[in-house]
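Hey L., structure's done. Input below.
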Amino acid sequence: MGFYRYANDLISLFFPEVCLGCNRPLVSQEKYICTHCSFHLPYTNFHLDAENIACKRFWGRIPLKAAASYLYFSPGSLVQQILHNIKYKNRPHAATFLGKQYGLSLKKTSSFNNIDLIIPVPLHKKRLRARGYNQSEYFGKGLAESMGIDMETALLIRSRKTETQTIKNRYERYKNMQDAFQIIRPKSLENRHILLIDDVLTTGSTLEACANELLKIQGTKVSIATIAFTK
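Output:
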């Protein structure tokens, strides 16, 4: 045991893990995000407000039970830097870390303590092959662990490859996502409360398209959780 600890300390000396937010070396007990950056993250606390602005973004569009996001997102921010590392720099386990933290808060609230199943927004198989992982699935792993809920990744699939949403307006995003998702074995989801998850909530078009498919199933209820929310 002493040898392995010595070896790990030596590796850390020459190849230190760095904070995904500020790029400074992490110290003992810190993981993915340093204490300073964690303290300055813009937490939303949406889970404490049943009528938060994430919920309001879907009013008149889909009948959600609840919606919440862990952090506020803005261009050039600390959150953007962290998400960029997760999504494009092969650091998906940091999404699991965030999911574990957020799940501890969600399960204490009445809106989220009766979830039956977690389902991440899927990537198309070509995009998944190119990236190597789905960051939303890793976020879901953390939520599932801390909330004590199962996660399913094979029941909701992206059946059509869509164009990137980044430069589209709200209507273009909505049209781009129409008929892009498909439910496999819908009977297995009947009468279940599903927590649908994604990395960032912007216009909500992708989540809306997924939720619409899930809500076609008898007795289903849908709530939403994301890592970040764009104002």
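Residues 1-40 form one domain. The two ends are 48 Å apart (CA to CA).

-- N.
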